[in-house]
Amino acid sequence: MCTDCGCSIRGKEDKHHHDHEHHHDHHHNSHEHQKAHSHIHNNPHLNDPKTITVIQKILDKNDHEAMHNRSHLDNHGVLGINLMSSPGSGKTTLLEHLKDVCEFNYGVIEGDLETNRDAERLKAKNIPAMQIQTGSACHLDAFMVHKGLHDLPLDDIDVCFVENVGNLVCPASYDVGTHLNVVLVSIPEGEDKIAKYPVMFRKADLIIFTKVDLLPYFDYDIEKEKAVARSLKPNVDILELSIQDKDSLRQFAQWIEFKRKMRG
Amino acid sequence: MHEYSIVQALLTQCEDIAAKNDANAVNSIEIKIGVMSGVESHLLKTAFDTFKEGTVCGRSQLIIHEQPLKILCNECGFESEVPVYKCSKCESLNVKVVDGEDMYLMRLEME
What's the rounded mean pLDDT across residues B52-63? Predict the structure, then answer.
């Protein structure tokens, strides 16, 4: 067996007795071996069906790009947070109001099918924001986020939010290269969202119940929902938030501060 | 409906492997789809049959192995295939996921 490249071509090494003389004619230099190699490796077409076992993640290109994004963020000392939820559960509103209570600077990569409205809303509050229009794509992937990262002033910010496309299904399958996943679920969406979309909530490092000021008007058992979340992911962090309640916003800011410190 | 994007990633992967192996065509593709990967197998199949046209996988058969959620209990050590993240023996939630959350390309037959 050819020990250098792992192929099974046998050549001169058969005659190669280990007599420890100094003309160790390593078989890889042997002409015959090279010839055999080029015959097999450059065969222009496979003549017979060949089955190969691969075992590769289908999204490995995306995962590789995601790792690249993460190290890009790391190099700038920026914490990346992927914000996911259904449409209308309050992602952009949360990002608009977080600025009033937090001490760190943040920028946002916005993902929407159409319009720049979310980015405009954030820019109006002096938050650096970059809009990605996905067209018909229902999620952001690591390649789209990579482009977005180059348009954000990473040296001026401490935290980079990726506001994913509003959708509880597709974004869950894609690592976009952030450090943490935060998933929002709002009271008016009704109960059972967590049980119905387990793949998404399983990915969450933090689940935020939003619009909790509306709890008196809905038949919504928030403790039961929390129990469902913890049965999917026992170590998930959970916060209750209302834009009217500045303390709840501060709690979110503190959670982020804590995670920032943990990344040194 | 992100199955389209998944299929594009899969087709690119198969084209790369076929090119590396000097193959003219891919006859069959075997993939493993975890039930908790967030992808629907039948949608994936429809997307594959639509988008394989004109690629090296144009005549490929897509064989999907659905992988149930497989967990290893950190408390009692029991390994089981389950619908939820809970040990089927001791009901502990302290479990490690062994399989069922990812999508893998497993095997290709080419010629």
Answer: 96
Q: Does A170 touch chain B (CB under 8 A)?
A: yes
Supply the CATH number for residue B12's domain. Answer: 3.30.2320.50
Q: Is some CB atom of chain A closer than 8 A to the CB atom of B69?
A: no
User: How does DSSP classify residue B60?
Assistant: P
Q: Do A173 and B27 touch (CB under 8 A)?
A: no
- Number of domains composing chain B: 1
State ipTM. Answer: 0.91
Domain annotation covers residue B87? no
Average pLDDT, chain A: 87
Closest to B90 measured CA to CA, from B103, B108, B77, B105: B77
Mean pLDDT of chain B: 95
- Quote the pTM value: 0.85
Q: What is the C-alpha separation between A3 and A85, in angstroms, rounded?
A: 53
Tell me the pLDDT tens digit for each residue of A54-69: 999 999 999 999 999 9
Q: Which helix (H) or strand (E) segment is A165 a member of?
A: none
Residue numbers of the domain that contains B61: 3-68+101-110
Q: How far apart are CA A13 and CA B93, in angstroms?
A: 57
Please tell me which of the candidates B22, B103, B108 has its beta carbon nearest to residue A51. B108
